[in-house]
Amino acid sequence: MTEKDILHAMKSLDLTRAEAIQMLKDDEAIDHGAKLFELSDEQKKVEKKMKNVGRTPTAYNFSKRTRKPNEAKRELISNLAEFLSTISTKIEVTNPEREILFSCDGVKYRLTLAVPRS
User: Are the C-beta atoms of 70 and 64 separated by less than 8 Å?
Assistant: First the structure.
């Protein structure tokens, strides 16, 4: 409860300072579960009805998105693999649209092709 809250309550609800402070204290106590006043039998029935609202679970049908192959990347990777075969004897295309593993002079290399989004 800040001075700003007190002034806002005084102005908007036309309360005195003491009434605004007491109202904010009561609101905070209610928020923490305190029972400051007793409900009538009719109000208790309405409260119970409002608390027991049934919820029907929604059935979602998530479909697996099928990604169409990027032929330009596949062709580029195959051309790079073909070129690297002139330099290295051990070439492995781990992902036909993304990655080539090869070794040259006993050192392993990984070539990754990435296309930035436009």
Answer: no
Amino acid of residue 111 = L
Alpha-helix runs per DSSP H in 39-113: 41-51, 71-87
Does this model's pTM top 0.70? no
| Residues in the chain, pLDDT under 70 | none
Q: Where are the domains of the chain?
A: 1-36, 71-112
Q: Measured between alpha carbons, how far is 31 from 55 in angstroms, rounded to an integer?
A: 24
Residue 98's contacts (CB-CB under 8 Å, 6 or more residues apart) are 73, 77, 112, 113, 114
Q: What value does the CA radius of gyration of the chain take, rounded to a whole number of Å?
A: 35
Residue 113: its pLDDT value, please?
Answer: 92
Rounded Cα distance, 25 and 6, in Å: 11
Token pair listed for 19 = 């009434």
Tell me the C-alpha distance between 99 and 81, whole Å.
10
